[in-house]
Design brief:
The chain is built from seven helices and seven strands. The N terminus is likely disordered. Helices cover 31% and strands 18% of the residues. Strands 1-2-3-4-5 form a five-stranded antiparallel β-sheet. It has a two-stranded antiparallel sheet with strand order 6-7. The protein has 163 residues and is of the alpha+beta class. It starts with a helix and ends with a helix. It has two domains: 64 residues, Single Sheet (N-terminal domain of TfIIb); 69 residues, Orthogonal Bundle (Arc Repressor Mutant, subunit A), CATH 1.10.10.
Length: 163
């Protein structure tokens, strides 16, 4: 596998830096700018009893690790907090477990252990050791609705810095 291929995401072979932060879409609670998330992602990740409230518009993911809000819609004024979603949000301060890959249920700790304890040096090694990115359904499973490549890379970098 070449470096170019290993830097591609599992979803539609896109480059990892596709997670764009939208401006002027502030969280109604903490006023942090959110990342745009497609409606299908929100529908899959909110509790089943709340699915009807989601509607047909896209949402934003609050990127503040301290804020209790996960998804919000600035047009409809609908918001969902951490207790109203099915998965812990990896960057929120009390996330447990902290998934690096939601589709394969691989945690940040597993990725870091692959680097620190098992000698993984790069993405290819980590994917082989952990099984991350083997079952890509990112639009439904990852809170951003995008590939987990960058989250895994961040965990690899964390592990490498611990060596």
């Amino acid at each position: 596998m070449t470096n170019e291929i290993s830097n591609k995401c599992c979803c539609r072979n896109t480059i990892a830096s596709t997670c764009k932060i939208e401006e002027n879409n502030l969280c109604p609670i903490c006023k942090t700018t959110g990342a745009k998330v497609k409606n299908i992602t929100v529908k899959h990740l909110v509790l089943e009893t709340l699915t009807e409230l989601v509607g047909d518009t896209d949402y934003y993911l609050c990127m503040d690790e301290e804020c209790d809000i996960v998804y919000y819609n600035t047009e409809s004024n609908i918001k969902f907090n951490k207790q109203q979603v099915k998965v812990p949000i990896w960057f929120k301060k009390d996330a447990n477990p902290k998934y690096a890959c939601y589709c394969s249920k691989v945690t940040e700790e597993q990725v870091m252990n692959a680097v620190v304890k098992d000698g993984a040096k790069n993405m290819k090694d980590v994917l082989k050791l952990t099984g991350a990115m083997k079952n890509p359904q990112c639009q439904k499973n990852n809170p951003l609705g995008k590939c987990c490549h960058q989250i895994i890379q961040d965990a690899i970098d964390k592990g490498l810095s611990m060596k």
